[in-house]
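Annex B. Sample input.
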Amino acid sequence: MGGTSIWHWIVVGLIVVLLFGRGKISDMMGDVAKGIKAFKKGMSEDDTPAKPVQPSEPVRTIDHQAGAPTSAATTDHKVG
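Annex B, continued. Sample output.
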């Protein structure tokens, strides 16, 4: 039990051909080949270094003031 012989695969292949037909299988394999080619092309395009993007406006920095409260616990809130 569980042994697969060449006859098993022949029968499975014949059933697949009967269900899908030879035309659909060849179309499907052509689509797979196109997908592989597109994938390879996309991967080769990723290998080229990207150009750095220039920011549209200068980067702003935030100056921190020494001694300023940094959390809500240090501010005075009156709870009624």
